[in-house]
Structures are given as structure tokens and as C-alpha cells.
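Posted in: Structural Biology > Protein-Ligand Complexes

Title: Requesting predicted complex, flavin-adenine dinucleotide in pocket

I'd be grateful if someone could produce the C-alpha cells for the following input. Sequence and ligand are given below.
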Amino acid sequence: MLIQENISLTSFNSFGCKATANYFCTIKRKNEIDEAISWCEHQEKPFLVLGGGSNILFTKDFDGLVIKMEMKGIQLLKETPREVLISVGAGENWHLLVKYCVQKAWGGIENLSLIPGTVGAAPIQNIGAYGVEAKETIQQITAYDTHTKQWVILDNDACQFSYRNSLFKKEKNRYIIAEVQFLLQKQPTLHTDYGVIREVLHQKQIKQASIEDISNAIIEIRTDKLPDPSILGNAGSFFKNPTVNHEIFNKIKEDHPTLVAFPISNNEYKIAAGWLIEQAGWKGKKQGSVGCYEKQALVIVNYNQATGKEIYNFSEAIIQSVNNMFGIQLEREVNII
Ligand SMILES: Cc1cc2nc3c(=O)[nH]c(=O)nc-3n(C[C@H](O)[C@H](O)[C@H](O)COP(=O)(O)OP(=O)(O)OC[C@H]3O[C@@H](n4cnc5c(N)ncnc54)[C@H](O)[C@@H]3O)c2cc1C
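-- Reply #1 --
Done. Output follows.
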């Protein structure tokens, strides 16, 4: 395993922010993970696991070892007339995996089409979109536990998945995910509950949608709504949708009848963070090289070589202003380094 020094991370993060890793290595095999962690211990340096860099904001250089996951491979472990079980290397590109499964007509992850990043990062925040979350298909995960120096196999329950959260986010930097197993369906129940998906299918006069139709619809919706990071630096949704109780929900609804929210339990509602940010007047707003995307207020964009610090400060100003207006503290979804 080669450890390189002073490597630029600019092309390894979707914001395109300038940052340098003092040490950098790529991982193509499991045993290289043990080696990289031993090296860090020996050198008394911290480590940072990096996938596609599409959910990270570098506000400074990283004085330690950046471990870039490039483990590849899709293996069919089991096939029955109803299901398939596959094992996928952490370094595989997420969208290419979705395309591969769609092509084989294996259902379960088609609503997660076009999400950037790697397979190994998908469980970290339990990626989700258009009514589906990664946790619904993840069967088990093979990870290196950097505390015990053991390889562990974690089943779905052990991963403690919830909305944009998991064991891996709670115990930050403890586990390095090497492989993820997905259980996919040959006759899946398709998720078309989102109005926009139904609209696209209707426009195309598709009555009996296939897995591929759903994937194509999602790609069309996302391409129209979200900025392409290769053109305009961003990390998708910068904030999580906050949860509020019935009382707060009622109060906001009374003052703002257009409130966008949906119930998640008897007494709890999830409020669309994009709606809060828009109400606070940030949608389309630009300060220097940083801005709030004009088509989706949840997305912060780097218009022209903004630094990670500038983007962070912009996000801080949004948090403050939403708090002043609604008394709700937004939480960042993006990982800040
Ligand atoms: C345009 C755009 C749209 C997006 N849309 C969505 C969306 O709809 N839904 C959604 O949930 N997300 C979305 N995202 C966010 C992002 O794509 C996902 O969070 C994705 O899973 C990040 O993958 P990555 O490989 O780029 O992770 P990175 O950004 O490299 O890393 C993210 C975190 O995971 C850790 N990590 C990465 N790989 C591993 C590993 N193998 N083992 C242990 N830790 C690891 C990192 O240390 C870091 O803390 C979007 C981003 C963009 C740019």
C-alpha cells in the first residue's frame, strides 16, 4: 500500500473546495485497511475515510491519512425465483450499482437513482430519496472495527438505521465499511407515491411502470431539480429536515398556512427544511462565491472557488436566520472537516 504526501483533495470533493491531505492512500483490498490503520497508530495520525466526497465539506487541510475507498466488485451470492442477494465492494459507484440492478430488473434501489458517491458511504447516513431509504435493502455489512482491530459482520438491526442516521454516524470514525450486502426483489412493490414521480409517468403515458421506468423518471426529476456537481460544486441537501412536536407544528401552521410538513408519528412532524430556508428569504440568494440554489433551497452551491470556510459561514447564517424566524435549529447533513 502506497502512502503519498501532500495530495490535493480539490477533485475528491463535490464542492470542489481546496484542501490538502498530509497523507493519502487508496484501498483496493480488505487487508490494506488493517495496514492503513496500523500506519496511523504508529505515526500517531488521525485518519479520514473518503468515498466520492459528495457529502463532505473541507474547511481546512487534513493533517492525517485520507483513506480513499476503491474496493470494487459485485458478487451474486444467492438467487431464488423471488429475490437476489448481492455483495458489493465499498468503492463501487452508487449510481452505477443502481443502473446494474435496474438492467437486471432487480428492484429495491431504483428510487435512489443518480445519488452521487460510493456504495460504502450509502449506509453511513442511510441515503434516501423519493420515499425509499437504503436501509430497506441492506442485509448486512462487513466492516473493520478500528477500536477492537477486528473485522465484524453487522446485520440490518445492528446498523441502527434511522432518518439520515446509523450506527456509523453515531460512532463516528469507528467502522470502515468494506462490503455491503443488498437483498433485492424480482417482483418488487414499486414506490410511486411521490407526486412528481406520478406526474412524469403520466406525461409519458406509462400506466404499468417497470423498475426501469421509475429509475428513468427519478433521473429526469433529479437532473431538472438539482445542480450537477461537475458543473456547480455542491453536496446535495446541506441540512436535515427537522422534527417538531404537534404543538410547534400547529403554531407554525397557524402563522404560515403554506407550511410543508408530514406526520411521522402521533405527535411528531417532519418539516421540509427547504421550505423553512425559503421562508427565511435564502432561496436563490448569493453572497460572494456561495449561494443557495435557486431551484432547491436545501442545496448550497459553490459558484466560483469558494473556500470551505465561506460555505460553512454561509450555512451558519442560514441556521441563525431560520432559528430567529421559527425557533428551529437546523442540523447539517453534510460532514464538516
Ligand atoms: C447532487 C447531490 C445530490 C445528493 N442527493 C442525495 C439524496 O437524494 N439522498 C441522500 O441521502 N444523499 C444525497 N446526497 C449526498 C451524498 O451523495 C450521499 O450522502 C452519499 O452516500 C455520499 O457518498 P460518498 O461516497 O461521496 O461519501 P463521502 O462524502 O466520501 O463520505 C461521507 C461520509 O461517509 C464516510 N465514509 C465514506 N465511505 C465510507 C466507508 N467505506 N466506511 C466508513 N465511512 C465511510 C466519510 O468518512 C464521511 O463521513 C447528494 C449529494 C449530491 C452532490
